[in-house]
Design a protein that fits this description.
Layout: E1 5-9, H1 16-29, E2 37-41, H2 44-53, E3 59-63, H3 80-85, E4 90-93, H4 96-101, H5 106-118, E5 122-127, H6 131-135, H7 139-150, H8 156-160, E6 163-166, H9 180-197, H10 200-205, E7 208-211, H11 219-223, E8 230-233, H12 240-247
Helix pairs in contact: 1-2, 1-12, 5-7, 7-9
The protein binds 1,3-dihydroxyacetonephosphate.
């Protein structure tokens, strides 16, 4: 009942030409996929070109971040209106790299999540603990803090149009994936939290992606878990064949 959602976060990679090469190969490889929602998040500079290239296909467009204001004197920022204008349906908010390198906090994440909804963009809100937090046994406290404060003030309708990405920071770009059991434990915890904050019905419908060193070899085991509804893929989304294999995780290869 929850349609899997697999998104490629290209991070700060790909010129326009490279982005087009990637997405043009990808769209052919995944053209027959109907059972998975496919999303790509190119850098801002390639959004328009990629958006044009995927028109009429089964691939949707996401941005990697945005500011919450509609317009104004905010040098260097991109607004929700601009993302809508270029054809984005999704926007990643609160990625750990933004929290870690660019001062993103639960408060700014919450403002962005609310601004996304105000403009009809679906946020993919990222949460997850750092290695030292996992090792000191506070994973659930950290994840709860991210979830509760990031989603503050959302209506049930808005929650249903929000995707949560659980990305343990220690698994990002390290080759050290969370085991399906480790991920499932946190995903289940997040769904229980959503049940408390919203309702059981809402919690059952919200999609929770896992992210962190996903590869064609480990996606099926993760997706087999009852509370894992998709993936947010970094490195392995930069090549059309590996991302297509991940999207097609359910098929024999
Ligand atoms: P990797 O797949 O490269 O570990 O990155 C995960 C991620 O941060 C996706 O947003």
């Amino acid at each position: 009942m929850r349609k899997p959602i697999i998104a490629g976060n290209w991070k700060m990679n790909k010129t326009i030409g490279e982005a087009l090469e990637l997405v043009n190969s990808l769209k052919e490889l995944v053209a027959d996929v109907t059972d998975v929602e496919i999303v790509v998040a190119p850098p801002f500079t390639a959004l328009q070109a990629v958006g044009e290239a995927i028109k009429g296909t089964n691939i949707k467009l996401a941005a990697q971040d945005m500011f919450w204001e509609e317009s104004g004197a905010y040098t260097g920022e991109i607004s929700p209106l601009m993302l809508k204008d270029v054809g984005c349906q999704y926007v990643i908010i609160g990625h750990s790299e933004r929290r870690g390198y660019f001062g993103e906090t639960n408060e700014t994440v919450n403002r962005k999540v609310k601004a996304a909804h105000k403009h009809g963009l679906k946020p993919i809100m990222c949460v997850g603990e750092k290695l030292e937090e996992r090792e000191s046994g506070v994973t659930k406290e950290v994840v709860k803090d991210h979830v509760v404060n990031g989603l503050k003030g959302l209506s049930e309708e808005e929650m249903l149009n929000t995707v949560i990405a659980y990305e343990p920071v220690w698994a990002i770009g390290t080759g050290r994936t969370a085991t399906p059991q480790q991920a499932q434990e946190v995903h289940q915890f997040i769904r229980e939290l959503l049940g408390e904050i919203f309702s059981k019905e809402v919690a059952e419908q919200v999609r929770i992606q896992y992210g962190g060193s996903i590869k064609p070899e480990n996606i099926a085991g993760l997706m087999a878990q009852p509370d894992i509804d998709g993936g947010l893929v970094g490195g392995a989304s930069l090549k059309a064949d590996s991302f297509a294999k991940i999207v097609k995780f359910g098929r024999s290869r």
